[in-house]
Write a structure and sequence with these properties.
single chain, 18% strand, 3 helices, 36% helix, 3-stranded antiparallel sheet, alpha+beta, 3 strands
């Protein structure tokens, strides 16, 4: 049984390009076992994930599987958004910018005196 002391665990950076956070977080135990953990991480200016596991790291095939699952997930999410906005399904584009309602920010009362 793996130790939780940390000395048996290995940490490695997994670049996040093409890997959905939802997919990685929900599938990490399937690929690396129940003691593996993952969190968002930045390494040398690259965004990705810090994976901590007592076992071996993800293989290239496993990473490709995660990328394929991520593509499917993002496509389905884009389809849901298009349908919910009443647009035709042929307008699906995964990276389409989506306008969000910005909340008004109010300055704290002590700043209002200096206007």
């Amino acid at each position: 049984m793996p130790s939780f002391a940390g000395n048996d665990n290995k940490q490695y950076f997994l670049p996040g390009w093409g890997i959905s956070r939802n997919i990685l977080f929900s599938h990490i135990h399937f690929f690396l076992g129940p003691y593996a953990t993952v969190r968002p991480y930045s390494y040398q200016g690259r965004e990705g994930y810090l994976v901590i596991t007592p076992g071996p790291p993800l293989t290239e095939k496993q990473i490709e599987d995660l990328q394929n699952l991520s593509r499917q997930y993002e496509q389905q999410a884009a389809e849901r958004m298009v349908v919910s906005q009443g647009q035709p399904e042929e307008d699906i584009f995964i990276n389409r910018p989506i306008r969000v309602q910005q909340q008004r920010r109010y300055a704290p009362s002590y700043y209002r005196h200096y206007r």
